[in-house]
Amino acid sequence: MFVMPCCRLRGAKGAGCMMSVREILGCAMAVAFCSIAAHGADNAGQRPGYYREPAVHGDTLIFTSEGDLWTVGVHGGAAHRLTSAPGQERRATISPDGQTVAFHAEYEGPDEVYTMPVGGGIPQRQTWDGGADPVGWNPDGRLMIETLRYATLPDPSLVLIGSHGEREMLPLATGSEAVYSLDGKTLFFTRMEWQGSNTKRYKGGFIQNLWRYDGHGEAVPLTSDWVGTSHAPMVLNGRVYFLSDRDGVMNVWSMDPEGHGLKQESHQKFFDVQSASAADGRIVYASAGDLWSLDLATGREAVIPIALVSDFDQLREHWVAKPMSYITEVHLAPDGSRVVFTARGEIFTMPAKTGRVIRVAGNSEVRYRAARFLPDGMSVVALSTASGETEFWKFPANGEGAAEQWTNDAKVLRWEGIPSPDGRWRAHDDKDQQLWIFDTKTKDNKRIAESMSGRFEGLSWSPDSRWLAYVEQADNNFAQVRVLNVESGKMETLTSDRYNSTSPAWSSDGKKWLYFLSDRALNTTVPSPWGPREPDPHFNHPEKIYAIALVEGLRSPFLAADELHPDTVAREDKKPDDAGKADSSSKKEAGKEPATDESRGAEKKPEDKKLPEAKIDFAGIGERLTEVPVPPGNYENLQVTDKRLCWVNASDEIRPKMTLDCLSVDNKGDEPDTVMADVRGYEISGDRKKMLIRHQDDFFVVDSDLKSTSDAKVMAKAKVDLSHWEMSTTPRESPQRARQGRRDETGRSQQNAGREKVRPPLIPFHCLRDGREPAGLSPRTARRLSVPAWADSLQPLFLFPNPCSLFPAYESMLTNPVGTYFEVTVPLSTVTNVTPSRSPNCIPFHQFPHTAPPVMYWIP
């Protein structure tokens, strides 16, 4: 058995462990990987895994990894797969004679209990309950399960199953996790099953406590003195072992059968002990993805070095024939010529009509999210985890050239960024409910506001890029529309906190109107609160569309003409001054000299188009609210084209069906047009001339003034062709390829990465012998050695916040004038195939590749 050592400053015995996260990771990971290497884990067919739910009997250990059952010796080594079905096989428990393992599986569909020989074989189904789990065994060889088949309460019952399928219900109202005493006369159990929350230190109404039932009378509680969780009972050496979070972390504890003599057995300080199994003087438990061995006689705890042996077919490169199933974001180019897709963490652009599919960014070590075009259409900005945090990166839209990291100050997950029309600003929010504005010129990311109630939503820029409209929850949790002036930083609230107001959208001229949705049509479908089954009020079709006049003196464009307000739209269409222009122009032309070709060219040269400047008069703005003449509905996602308002209307169903509706902005009294039914979303292009519509799994790019999609020929031409789109994915990319992918993304090596945060190079040693450095290879000379190709691409797997409190001695940390490195001493008795004169010592990097030999690493 390999003993996990601690790393402590030499000369600081009894003191706390003062180490960086990288050093902690190095110590923890190196020992584990060195031990695997000592057992032959450098074989390419082996790799470390994530292990849980152990079951131990004698020298046999069965556990779950990759959704299958595996078996290995209790001292670790190469594990072999027992099951390989597509479903989950878990919760293994070994029979008292050590010949049979019972487990939970889904071979025929429902969750049932199956058994098979410990060495492997064809599983035999034991239950037909439509949902059952194995709990353990009676000492007489009968299998104990928990099932809801006989329960009259929400919690399951405990049932014994004999070798011929005969059943005996235990005389308990409810029972879940349970174990018998060695004589089979006493049952230790929990009344409730796991409450379903991974919350640490849970103390709610569904806590699990241990009870004892002696076969007669009433069951008695054993752990009622603790308000937290006590579960997973195990019986060994006349004591009851169980898991409890009494010290703040779920650990192994023990007590006598009467509930007295409480003792803490394991001492995990950060990661909970998730499950455990006891046999032959030891407890094997799962924590932080590892299986640990706890020797009850000595109290020694150590990670069991395990490597999985398999073909790992799921890790091979494979092609995704239908990337549509993995799309997370879709956005339209500013001119509607292309569409950018984010799928499986990669970025692609597709032509709206004809052209090539472009892979803008893709790296299996990095996840990309929320890709959008910049207003110039030449670049794509997306969230990327390449730096270790979720930051904004800029990519060439044609896939050629280096990427540029824009932000470097993320502390939590960020949400998508909305670019301003001129490309200068980018508004975004994050998981801390903060609103940010990023300046693309100065690269300054400024926090604008922080909400205590919810996210900032509905981010919408004015056409002149001076104002940002957004939705923020008021103190009473009602959503309000607010605006921010990016030049002055001034913020103002436009709507009341008596109703929810969402989805702000600026009029196309950018200076007259701000449209939004608000749930002010509160007509319940429930006639009265009386009756045996009348629910709370149900408001169907509550949203209406409203417009706020940004300045005084504006008249709603939807109002009909009257004698005080003639049909100004018609007058503008007719342009009555055209005739006067013709007369005056003819007179001017008569007095002019004949025009030359140069003058004609100058006359034809178009004038520079100036963006309309939005000015908002906040005085009395609440009184300038007008209603758009549209019946109320279940509206969302309001957007504006040059001539129309568009929105999505959802049906009142559990799985609502949505239609895309649009209304012309005029005073002709037209009804809204249903552009397309059964849509899943839409988006207006930046120039407001094109529209992207998603219908089921198809995408269409159409003119924004299209009134109907009933013409099959028109829609066939508007469909975005995704038939040739396939993508390759490699779940476990080779270190060399991953490193090259990162070089491609930054356009330069990590050593010359400018602003990026780069960890220093990590220099490999070969083995130290008997605590001495090998001749000719001191830390000074090693510093000049080249870094192996895979070293810069590895990522840490686990985090041990304070290993000194977890493990006993066997350690020392040495310092030298050049750098700092670890010398981790391994007890000779714990390593096989090593002679006493050649005891290896590991100086760790924070992870060894599974194909590398046990080498040492010095951290400069």
Explain what you see.
By secondary structure, the protein is mainly beta. The strands form 16 sheets. Strands 1-26-5-4-3-2 form a six-stranded mixed sheet, with no helix packed on it. Strand 29 (338-343) and strand 30 form a beta hairpin. The longest helix is centred in the first third of the chain and has 18 residues, at 21-38. The two termini are 32 Å apart. 37% of the residues are buried.
Question: Can you give me a brief rundown of this structure?
Answer:
This protein is mainly beta and 860 residues long. The longest helix has 18 residues, at 21-38.
List keywords for this structure.
6-stranded mixed sheet; 61 strands; mainly beta; 860 residues; 8 helices; disordered N terminus
How would you sum up the global shape?
elongated
Give the oligomer, counting copies of the same chain as homo and different chains as hetero: single chain
Number of strands: 61
Radius of gyration: 35 Å
Q: Into which percent range does the helicity of residues fall?
A: under 10%
Strand order of the largest sheet: 1-26-5-4-3-2
Structure class: mainly beta
Q: How far from one another are the termini?
A: 32 Å
Query: What's the tally of helices?
Result: 8
- State which percent range the strand residues make up: 25-35%
Largest sheet: 6 strands, mixed
What average pLDDT do the residues reach?
78
Low-confidence stretches: 1-42, 569-608, 734-860
